Amino acid sequence: MTSETAPKGQGRSELGVALFLLALGVLVLVDAAGIPETAGQTGPVGPKAVPFVLGAALVVLSILLAIDVLRGGRGEQEMGEDVDLSHGTDWRTVLILVGAFLANVVLIERVGWAISGAILFFGTAFALGSRHFIRDALIAIALSVGSWYLFALGLGIELPVGVLKGIL
Amino acid sequence: MEALGDLINGFATALTPVNLLYAFLGVLLGTAIGVLPGIGPAMAVALLLPLTFGLDATAAFIMFAGIFYGGAYGGSTTSILLNTPGESSSVVTAIEGNKMAKRGRGAQALATAAIGSFIAGIIGTLLLVFLAPTVVDIALQLGAADYFALMVLAFVAVTSVLGASRIRGFISLVLGLTIGLVGIDLSTGQQRLTFGVPQLADGISVIVVAMGLFAVGEALWIAAHLRRRPAEIIPVGPARMNKQDWSRSWKPWLRGTGIGFPFGVIPAGGAEIPTFLSYVTEKKLTKYPGEFGHGAIEGVAGPEATNNASTAGGLVPLLTLGLPTTATAAVMLAAFQQYGIVPGPLLFENEPELVWGLIASLFIGNVILLVLNLPLAPVWAKLLRIPRPLLYAGILFFASLGAFAVGGSPVDLLVLLIVGLLGMMMRRYGLPIVPAIIGVILGPRAEVEMRRALQISGGDISGLVNTPLSIAIYTIIALVLLWPLVNRFVIRRFRTPAREVPVGHTHALVELAEEIAEEPVEPEPSRAASTTDRPDSTERLP
User: Fold this and answer.
1) pLDDT category, B47, cuts 50, 70, 90?
2) Interface ipTM
3) Interface of A with B in 86-125 (CB under 8 A)
4) Number of residue pairs across A and B with CB atoms under 8 Å?
5) For residue A75, what is the DSSP state?
6) pTM beyond 0.90, yes or no
7) Which of B364, B334, B328 is nearest to B66 (CA)?
């Protein structure tokens, strides 16, 4: 099922998915083992049963996936309107994008959504290759301030106001 | 007819000026967001969900009905004008639709899609009106074991029908079920997979997961592979059709509705297979076989009607049993839960105003969709030119905004990012997204029903299979699971290996459909002979 555009070495990296599933399965099993069986349990099936089944399923599936990959099976990369699979993964773009996202996570309660949201929008647009700095900044501020007011006035949801308290 | 009376009451709810405004807003926003490249109907609903937080439940669901149909229609506009559809349900539409657009018949393609969607939507919703009370009557008799069996069926169907490989489908499902595990076990109060983080004790909101897997995952995946030169967009005028287009479209619309609705009702994993079936049917029945592969209007009319009819059909299990069969239905279910509403047979008894108001809004939404989309087609086409950096920055912006509005804590944003990275990995390695989202939403409920059934039976495993329905469902599940073996050892011996139909493999289905489209159909010399011979274009006789 590998298309010609699939980068070489996908087989090995797909084994990483199997490894991820294995690690997740072990994590779920360890967590399940740590759940105490309580007296307040109603019915024969306690809180541990389903986590054990799912943890075991993850381990089994990781092995089945590894076997499938070693036999030449490949997951098909998703296509789309804006996806160009002829290049490898552009990690630089992804990293800047994740950085802008994390900046919002860290800043949202400190400086408020109106600023952190604008940073998120501007940063992701920059990461994706937009170089119209003034236009992007104006759109970013309009969106974040506009959505703050929409939520506060229209929907009755208070987004963090942060340092702009008293101004917005 | 009791259903008709309920429906009239529903219209009374939905036709107030304020609710009409919400329906209109829903259709407008749903179409606008759904048209944007990379945004399918499920993501459109998830992104617009926070807008309804300030509304009461009835108004919110009336708006949702609009978003639901608007988002679905927006997706088909994209596939006709851009050719590379982002979502699987409009993949087949793109084959003939884009060829029509290239030949300067984009307006006709959009018109037959819009009118076909309208007719299929109206008939489908009517079928829903008459079918729902019957299913509710049956559903009221169901016990925990039956519900558990139904959910297992949904799990198996969605993993076995969608995607390239079953292993990858099941991996996706189990990942979703594991995410659903996070939080406090309701019956014992024990924390599971919370790692001591207090914000995780309430579990991970399905809406955050949906936005993470669809919006953030999609944005990250596209960021990693952004096409530097935007795809070519074909300019288009207002959607319209001439007399010949009408006479060629109406039968495919009706046939498409007939194919699509039943596939929506059963948990068979979305619209890929019925739209493909519709395409093949239209190619077989058309009077203009030479046009297929070069923009035949039947190839747009049929699949588009099918798509919308299956969307309407999917509302039957969603509303009567609380079982979502598609990603969009799963997000709708999450929206219900946000309001503390549990879809199912009791919903029809306890909240008739809400349910029937919603159903009435589906009719209204359909009408608004038609009125709006025929003249506005050129405007929607312009939306496709939005610069990609701004589009995906906007998706991340609104996903973050929504996740924060749902949870109110930066931890929710971190969860959103982690689920988004998971979604990116799933896209990279061909793990289908839909089973994961169905797993997240149905997993916790399946566990509750399973434990309840076993509690009733005192721990005896037979408590899961003690009703005729549950036995029947497990038989179906066994058949679905064993089908590849049956196919390999029994059916293949009787079939010529001319062309394999790889069931459930979306891209293979598309390639197959394109192959069928390009295959020249010569006027057969002896029509009489060919009728006895089944002029079957899918399986060539040796």
Assistant:
1) confident
2) 0.91
3) 87, 89-91, 93-94, 97-98, 100-102, 104-106, 108-109, 113, 117, 120-122, 124-125
4) 239
5) P
6) no
7) B364
User: How many alpha carbons lie under 13 Å from residue A21 in its C-beta half-sphere?
Assistant: 30
Positive or negative, the Cα torsion across B408, B410, B414, B417?
positive
Q: Name every chain A residue with its beta carbon within 8 A of the beta carbon of B193.
A: 28, 31, 51
State the sign of the Cα–Cα–Cα–Cα dihedral B481, B485, B488, B489.
negative
pLDDT, tens only, B227-246: 766 666 777 777 788 888 98
Cβ-defined contact of B394 to A121 (cutoff 8 Å): yes
Alpha helices in B326-457 (DSSP H): 327-338, 345-350, 352-383, 388-407, 410-428, 434-456
Q: What residue has token string 């949201």?
A: A117
Q: Is B199 exposed, middle or buried (0-12, 13-18, 19+ CB in 10 A)?
A: middle
Any B CB within 8 A of A2 CB? no
Tokens representing residue B182 in the block: 């996070």
Hunting for tokens 């630089």 — which residue is that? A92
Contact B479, B161 (CB under 8 A): no
The answer to whether A82 and B38 have CB atoms below 8 angstroms apart is yes
Q: Are B103 and B63 in contact (CB under 8 A)?
A: no
Nearest-neighbour CA in chain A from B160: distance (Å): 15
Q: Distance between CA atoms of B253 and B302, rounded to whole angstroms?
A: 5
Q: Give the nearest chain A residue to B420 (CA atoms).
A: A98
Name the residue with tokens 């349900």: B89
DSSP classification of residue B1:
-
How far apart are alpha carbons B358 and A108 in whole angstroms? Answer: 36
Nearest to A90 among B178, B188, B224 (CB): B224
Find tokens 């009125």 and name the residue: B371
Q: Which of B82, B400, B405 sits opposite A157 (nearest CB)?
A: B405
CB spacing of A57 vs B174 below 8 angstroms = yes
How far off is chain A from B502, nearest CA to CA, in Å? Answer: 12
> Would you say B396 and A97 are in contact if contact means Cβ atoms under 8 Å apart?
yes
CA count, 13 A, side-chain hemisphere, B291: 18
- What is the band of B85 on the pLDDT scale with cuts at 50, 70, 90? low
Asked whether B109 and B373 are in contact (CB, 8 A), the reply is no
Q: Read out DSSP for B511-522?
A: HHHHHHHHS--P
Return the structure tokens found at B219: 């944005």
Q: Could you say which of B413, B430, B447 has the minimum Cβ distance to residue A77? A: B430
Two tokens, residue B35: 């048209």
Q: Which amino acid is at B299?
A: G
CA distance A63 to A19: 9
B78 touches chain A (CB under 8 A): yes
